[in-house]
User: Fold this.
Amino acid sequence: MVAEQAPISYPFPASPTIYHPAPELRALLDSRPVAPVSMPDGKTAWLVTRNADVRQVLVDPRFSRAAASAPEAAQTELSELVGESVLGLDPPEHTRIRSLVAKAFTARRVEQLRPRVVALVDDLLDKLEAAPRPVDLVENFSLPLPVQVICEMIGVPPQDRPEFHAWSDAMLGAGDATEEEKAAAMRGMSDYFAQLIAAKRAQPTDDLMSALIAARDADDDRLSERELVMLGIAMLIGGHETSANQINLCLLTLLHYPEQMKWLSANLDSVGQAVEEMMRFIQLGEGGGLPRIAMEEVELGGVRLPAGSAVLPALGLANRDPSVFEDPDRFDLSRKANQHMSFGAGVHHCLGAQLARMEIQEALRGLLRRLPGIRVSVPDDELRFKPGMVLRSLETLPVTW
Amino acid sequence: MWRVAVGPACIGSASCVALSPALFALGEDKRSHPVRAEIEPDGAALDAAFACPVEAITVTDQETGRVVSE
Ligand code: HEM
Ligand code: SF4
Assistant:
């Protein structure tokens, strides 16, 4: 069929519901698991949707993030931002930098932070309970929690936090930020980190940034000053917008499926497993993950991709692959052995995955335990998502109970 | 010789596989398995162990019995 062969265009069609991927994209899983996409700059990229193929793109070293971050590569909104960070590097450069921070984010280290996160959740809920209703969950709970956690880990003083949140928003494209605005935010953030590093170099504190500075100063070849700045930015940005939105979308999804909400409230000890199903089910972005470039000819899902092809791994669609997940469009918190792709895979597998899991678990445990009657005080179609964002990002989430 | 083992904590993130494909492969069970349990000392094994998000990989020096991946 001719229509079948026509490339889909980027940006991808928006889904009519926040609970499922766009039907046009969902259909690709069956009809065209490796589908051509025409990019705004006229180039062609390939959208990959099946779980096994997406995994291959993320794990197979023939697919390069560094080549996809080169200026001449097909661009999505996030490319520029991540190009200079760990997400824009291939091994061995990637290994050199990531290994400096990996230890701080392992499951074991994150478990040690859990009591602190539980205390932060309680503290935020105390304030939330005292506030007049309806109250905005974004500003008063889901955003401050991960921001506080990552800032304490990195060592960003509390008074500086509002400032970089605005930068992070602009860099992720909120409000259709112009190129100049994005660049200005990037400069603001870089300058901020340069100052923070200077201050900590003069007076080291017990945090990740001070440890990284010490590693850099002990051995120039480990980490350049620029790389240190970019690493700080990557952790800061990676560390708050995604987790905050995931908390919001978890709550929305639970409220949309009241029988699942009831199950979770009665089974809070299973919150770990429940969060994995929420991670799988929720469509945080609209289709494509960060692009990769095939460094040589590769056969993927029956399609021969020539060397130089740009490939977009669709994490959210891979999470709905019926060959891996039984009845994939069913939201079922009792689902076991959940091999979802929401944190990616391979060398770029989310650095903060264990941290995000723990934050979301404790956030939901706290919300359901202390505010069991919580509900959103506006209908779904009045929810305001930040325009232009690559992540599905709520501006506000008014709740009452 | 070094002994390489992947423990039950493995979540199948495949970080080790992407980093050191000669040493690790994902099995049918979607978990990582060492390609060979015994290897010549190789920095790539340590890179993988340090990159694992759940610290599932242990590398032991068989002569001394010392865990070298800590
Ligand atoms: C629910 C919350 C989160 C989600 C859904 C998420 C998702 C992801 C995904 C899919 C990737 C891989 C992208 C790719 O390979 O194309 C990634 C990488 C990354 N994430 Fe997360 N993330 C979350 C939370 C966090 C947190 C809390 C941090 C804090 C440190 C963080 C820091 C990073 C960094 C630094 C990378 C780049 C890793 C590398 O290139 O080696 N993320 N994240
Ligand atoms: S890096 Fe760790 S968790 Fe990931 S596949 Fe390898 S052993 Fe398993």
Notes: The pocket of iron/sulfur cluster (ligand 2) is lined by residues B 6, 10-16, 32, 52-54, 56-57 (CB under 6 Å). Residues 225-256 of chain A form the longest helix (32 residues). Chain A touches chain B at residues 55, 58-61, 91, 95, 98-99, 102-103, 105-108, 339, 343, 345-347, 349, 353-354 (CB under 8 Å). The longest strand of chain A covers residues 34-38.
